[in-house]
Amino acid sequence: SCHAERGEVIHEATRRRLSYGELAAEAARMPVPENVALKRPQDFKLIGTPAKRLDTPAKVNGTAVFGIDVRPPGVKVATLAQSPVFGGRLK
């Protein structure tokens, strides 16, 4: 018997642990079971609990760095020039 905990599947008898990533390829080859026993709501650990957003202060004060903000060395940037009105042409 196994159970999942913090991103790992743990074998009860041996306490051997494997990450979801280590099991993904083999799991993808297995047939999908018809009936799956779902966890009871009273056994949920994360669902229904508040989660602290660690990125909120940086988003609010403007210090957050997003993908569009990153400029790796040597990267070229291109933009498309187009008329601001339908059917218009650029000179």
Number of domains: 1
Please, how many helices? 2
Sequence stretches where pLDDT stays below 50 over 5 or more residues: none
Main beta sheet strand tally, sense and closure: 3 strands, antiparallel
Protein described:
The chain is α+β, with helices and mostly antiparallel strands. It has one domain. The chain has two helices and three strands. The radius of gyration is 25 Å and the shape is elongated. The relative contact order is 0.06.
Overview features:
single chain; 91 residues; alpha+beta
Topology record:
Elements: E1 2-5, E2 8-11, E3 17-19, H1 20-29, H2 56-61
Antiparallel strand pairs: 1-2, 2-3
Short summary:
By secondary structure, the chain is of the alpha+beta class.
